Amino acid sequence: MTVFEGLADETRRRLLVELADGARSAGDLAATEAASRPAISRHLKVLRQAGLLEVRQHGRHRIYTLRPAGLAPVRELLDRLEAVDEPTLAPPVPERRLAALDLEVRRTVRERRAAESDHPSQRSSS
């Protein structure tokens, strides 16, 4: 399970935001969500597997805390994306082909003009 898979679900992101305010039990977290307690437990398991949470047993309760170091891959990705000034886009057609097309257009125009000057009657009929 990757951190990105852990963050992919909106409910899991909300749980992380709740835990940013401090450690909470699974029951406390479930009380803030419309989903069932078993569903919240599954979300918490995914977040643990993604390395975003730590859990400790306190009596009968499991206490979850945010593990900020688990977000390192996200930070690295964002840093890399922010470092890009502007994406360099290659033209859809290689530049050398555009040069050849330009040469062909110029040749065609030149030939057309030569043909029109040889046959002035064609110019007046168009």
UniProtKB/TrEMBL annotation:
Cross-referenced Pfam families: HTH_20
SMART domains found in the cross-reference section: HTH_ARSR (SM00418)
InterPro entries associated with the record: ArsR-like_HTH, HTH_ArsR_DNA-bd_dom, HTH_MetalResp_TranReg, WH-like_DNA-bd_sf, WH_DNA-bd_sf
CDD domains linked to this entry: HTH_ARSR (cd00090)
Protein name: Winged helix-turn-helix transcriptional regulator
Top-level taxon in the UniProt lineage: Bacteria
Residue span(s) of domain HTH arsR-type: 1-86
Record keywords: DNA-binding, Transcription, Transcription regulation
NCBIfam families: HTH_metalloreg
